[in-house]
Amino acid sequence: MQEIHHFVDGQTVEGTSGRTSAVFNPATGEQTANLHLATVEEVDAVVASSQAAFEEFKTLSIAKRTKLMYKFRNLVEANTDEIAKRLSAEHGKVLDDARGEVARGLENIEFACGLAETLKGTFSSLASTGVDVTTTREPLGVVAGITPFNFPAMVPLWMIPNAIACGNTFILKPSEKDPSAPRFIVELFNEAGFPPGVLNLVNGDKVTVDRLLDHPDVKAASFVGSTPIAHYVYDKGTANGKRIQALGGAKNHMIVLPDADLDLAADAAVSAAYGSAGERCMAISVIAAVGPIADPLVDAIKSRMQNLTVGPGDQSESEMGPLITREHRDKVASYIGIGADEGASVVVDGREQQFEGDGYFLGVSLLDNVTPDMTVYKDEIFGPVLCVVRSESYADAVDLIRTNPWGNGAAIFTRDGGAARQFQRDADAGMVGINVPIPVPVGYHSFGGWKDSLYGDTTMYGPEGVHFYTRPKVITSRWPDPANSSVDLGFPTNN
Ligand code: NAD
User: Fold this and answer.
1) What confidence tens digit (pLDDT) does each residue in 208-264 have?
2) 72 and 207 in one domain?
3) In the chain, how long is the greatest CA-to-CA distance?
């Protein structure tokens, strides 16, 4: 059995707690590793390493940081297949999807390679006679990242490149369910030549997270995960005076107007609902079908579902892999029965598909005639179950998004430019797609939802990420002409 430990100061540090968490291959149900969970004292030692590294690292020139970031970028790209293999073996996603995850992570490293431009600051010459004003953005110190199971490579890469390019040192606490890909990425980062301690990795659970949020030397934390934990992390971290951005769960709606291109909408619905087994925070989980398009749309989605191949992520014919754990698979499956009991029509029941072996597989499901009072509508199912709500009008469909407690992504499918433009304004969500079902922003924009999908006021990566990981310093300097210098006790008048 493989033992997975922490990675601190450029090397493996063996866990001493005796507390471990089992890592499984979801395609087979076999345990593949023991993950060692940190104690409070182990977390303290990691923070001490990161703090010591910060004292040196904050003086490293932007030119040197940039060169190292390019090396890291190239190592990640060269190792895409190996990272994807690890992702698939512990998360279950198909290899193509896993490679896509690495590609989206690379975008964020590439943005950080160009950070010299963003960190230039501002300068006002002659703000007053003999006075110049400069604003610089300076690093915070030690910052932490706590990441979820569903994007074990990409989400850490939403945080690490910007945080470190800005001059901070970083502690990653990855999900305990699939720790091997993030661990490998941290090794690649150290191989690129960054000084030891600039990026440390500590494995753990609530004990680790709590200590990171309590430790006075941790200045900020980025969190991505479920809404209850995001809320908890935000409350605890901010009560301790830290800067916190905490991204939570989602229920993403896709409105399909009667004039939409039916094939485009049906293709998009299937890939956005069932890709990565629906375990994406930007997955479409509700279709709001407006008026007469509902019947043909449900038929078009159903016919496409019949062609989907569900199987192990490392087999080339598989289009969708297993769910993350047996418990999660069973919970997702239970929603199909709950939906039926509450009055939804089960168009396709994923429980009927049979699979060999002990993998955590579940077929894809489609529930029609779902209403907003049903549990399947209200809960984040986080699995391959798509709900269709039939709306009488565009206004009714938009109202679903407006009154939903989450606001991560929202999409509309239509051929009407005016309706699309109106939706852009009406959608109560942080990321909006127009004929795009999963509007994840590119690396030079920023990612984050509204309402219960984000606690904090700064979204992640891109320019907002730079803002989060730096604080401004304004320098007002006065160099009077030596020939005219005199003492003046008055307040400056700008005359
Ligand atoms: P999770 O909340 O269970 O875990 C996230 C992280 O928090 C993990 O590192 C975990 O170890 C830690 N954690 C778990 N319980 C904790 C506790 N009681 N105290 C402190 N830390 C704790 O989430 P998950 O199941 O790994 O990920 C799935 C969820 O993440 C879904 O709700 C999904 O929507 C959400 N998600 C959101 C985004 C986004 O951008 N908004 C992106 C990806 C995933």
Assistant:
1) 999 999 999 999 999 999 999 999 999 999 999 999 999 999 999 999 999 999 999
2) yes
3) 90
- Mutate-to-test residue for ligand 1 from 209, 247, 331, 446, highest number of ligand atoms within 8 A of CB: 209
pTM: 0.97
Known active-site residue 387? no
Q: How far is the CA of 93 from the centre of ligand 1 (A)?
A: 18
User: How are beta strands 30-36 and 20-25 bridged, if at all?
Assistant: antiparallel
88, 193, 64, 222: which is closest to 151 by C-alpha?
88
Could you read off the pLDDT of 108-129 as tens digits, one per residue? 999 999 999 999 999 999 999 9
Which 3 state secondary structure label does DSSP give 41?
A: helix
Residue 289 lies in a domain: yes
Cα(140) to centroid of ligand 1, in Å?
A: 24
DSSP structure string for 46-62: HHHHHHHHHHHHTTS-H
Asked whether residue 419 is assigned to any structural domain, the reply reads: yes
Contact 438 CB / ligand 1 (< 6 Å): no
User: Residue 260 maps to which CATH number?
Assistant: 3.40.309.10
| Tokens (6 digits) for 433 | 């797609």
Atom of ligand 1 nearest to the CA of 408: 41
**Identity of the amino acid at 280:** R
**Which of helix, strand or coil describes residue 235?**
helix
**Is 291 among the domain residues?**
yes
Residue with tokens 């009406």: 426
Q: Which residues of 3-41 are buried (b: 16+ CB within 10 A; e: fewer)?
A: ebbbbbbbeebebebeebbebbbbbbeeeebbbbbbbee
